[in-house]
């Protein structure tokens, strides 16, 4: 008996499809295990897994240096995230405005910031602005470009959330005599935030990772300090593995915090 197209697309997989899925999963899993074993063997052959490469992590000074870099990363990422969230909201309001005088400049700025790489913006702050007499600290040479670059994407995320709110609720609020500002602040925006929490979290994670561009301006963030340790200890793989774990823990903490914020209050 042939299955309908709707059943194939949205129905439960057939026993044959389930068997193929299991076999494919086992094959891919085995391939990944072999790949992981090959990587570990390569590290071992290069001497990167020997105790002499890991003994530096038994020293408090190593963790203090990495901790200082982590604080630098968090300090830059936190302010860049605030810039992105606030300026992104301003750009979104400009783009959705009925006034062309506000809408077109906002559209142009969003497209410009989305199209220009973050690294290029950092070079502008590092090389171009000083020649024009504008001198920024290394902190702002990193934080400001990262925040502005992310703000353009956040503006589009905000706009997607606003457009996802049913139009009927907006019409109902206007029929009650609410102003445009009241409708947006009380009805539309709170609901839009619930829709876009996952996308905003993804952008905050990108902000944290973009702080690794701090090497351009020699800002003391986590990756920059990791490179100093590698240069001093010649322990490439151990340092990068530990630093990667630290980044994963930071991003996991951001995800957990966002889940708590998105959880409805009863």
Shape: flat
Low-confidence stretches: none
Total beta strand runs: 0
The span between the termini is 49 Å
Q: How much helix is in the residues?
A: over 70%
CA-atom Rg in angstroms: 25 Å
Would you mind describing this structure in some detail?
- The protein is mainly alpha-helical.
- It has 11 helices and no strands.
- The longest helix is centred in the N-terminal third of the chain and has 36 residues, at 60-95.
- It is flat, with a radius of gyration of 25 Å.
How would you concisely characterize the structure shown here?
With 266 residues, this protein is mainly α. It contains eleven helices and no strands. The mean pLDDT is 85.
Show the helix and strand layout.
Layout: H1 5-10, H2 15-45, H3 51-54, H4 60-95, H5 100-115, H6 118-131, H7 138-164, H8 167-175, H9 180-210, H10 222-233, H11 236-262
Helix pairs in contact: 4-5, 4-7, 4-9, 4-10, 5-7, 6-7, 7-9, 8-9, 9-11, 10-11
Which structural traits does this protein have?
mainly alpha; flat; 11 helices; 266 residues; 0% strand
């Amino acid at each position: 008996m042939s299955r309908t197209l709707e059943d194939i697309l949205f129905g439960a997989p057939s026993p044959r499809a389930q068997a193929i899925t299991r076999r494919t999963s086992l094959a891919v899993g085995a391939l990944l295990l072999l790949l992981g074993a090959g990587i570990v063997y390569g590290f071992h052959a290069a001497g990167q897994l020997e105790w002499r490469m890991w003994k530096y992590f038994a020293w408090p000074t190593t963790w203090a240096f990495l901790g200082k870099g982590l604080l630098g990363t968090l300090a830059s990422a936190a302010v860049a995230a605030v810039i992105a969230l606030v300026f992104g909201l301003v750009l979104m309001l400009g783009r959705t405005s009925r006034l062309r005088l506000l809408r077109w400049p906002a559209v142009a700025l969003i497209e410009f910031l989305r199209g220009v790489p973050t690294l290029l913006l950092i070079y502008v702050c590092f090389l171009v602005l000083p020649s024009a007499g504008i001198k920024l600290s290394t902190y702002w040479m990193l934080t400001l470009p990262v925040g502005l670059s992310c703000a353009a994407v956040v503006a589009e995320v905000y706009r997607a959330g606003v457009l996802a709110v049913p139009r009927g609720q907006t019409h109902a609020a206007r029929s009650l005599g609410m102003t445009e500002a009241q409708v947006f602040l009380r009805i539309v925006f709170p609901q839009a935030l619930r829709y876009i929490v996952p996308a905003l979290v993804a952008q905050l994670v990108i902000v944290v990772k973009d702080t690794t561009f701090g090497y351009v301006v020699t800002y003391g963030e986590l990756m920059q300090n990791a490179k100093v340790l590698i240069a001093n200890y010649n322990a490439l793989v151990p340092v990068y593995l530990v630093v990667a774990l630290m980044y994963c823990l930071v991003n996991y903490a951001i995800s957990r915090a966002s889940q708590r914020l998105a959880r409805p209050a009863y």
